[in-house]
Amino acid sequence: MIQASRIAVFAIATAFAGPLHAERTTAAPDAQVYFIWPRDGTVINGGKFWVRMGLRNMGVAPKGVKMANIGHHHMLVDTELPPFGEPIPSDRNHLHFGAGETEARVELPPGKHTLQLLLGDHDHVPHEPPVYSKKITVIVR
């Protein structure tokens, strides 16, 4: 009976404690993520192309690897940077490369598109400080 009371008290205290916020994973202050290819202004015929992603002063590892100065790539397509304290969404505008890829084949519909890279930690949350590339534009024909 006493054990059940302790569990009930713990459950009530936990319920009213509010959401738990984990500390963000540390990034090297001089880290840089960038596009190797395509370059800003590239015209792509056919819609399918290889994206090559670069990273300086940090390492790339698959999702789930929890270490400072380690992360994996996310590519933002036709969207703005998400809130840095939350996991990066996973949808058609937020492509995850959680296996630790540094290159990937993607397909975009015809038109003008913006691309930006954002490094995420083991839980897909941007680092502190956040590591993101400049936004580039590509044209798909």
Automatic annotation (TrEMBL):
<protein>
    <recommendedName>
        <fullName>DUF4399 domain-containing protein</fullName>
    </recommendedName>
</protein>
<dbReference type="InterPro" id="IPR025512">
    <property type="entry name" value="DUF4399"/>
</dbReference>
<dbReference type="Pfam" id="PF14347">
    <property type="entry name" value="DUF4399"/>
</dbReference>
<feature type="signal peptide">
    <location>
        <begin position="1"/>
        <end position="22"/>
    </location>
</feature>
<keyword id="KW-0732">Signal</keyword>
<feature type="domain" description="DUF4399">
    <location>
        <begin position="51"/>
        <end position="141"/>
    </location>
</feature>
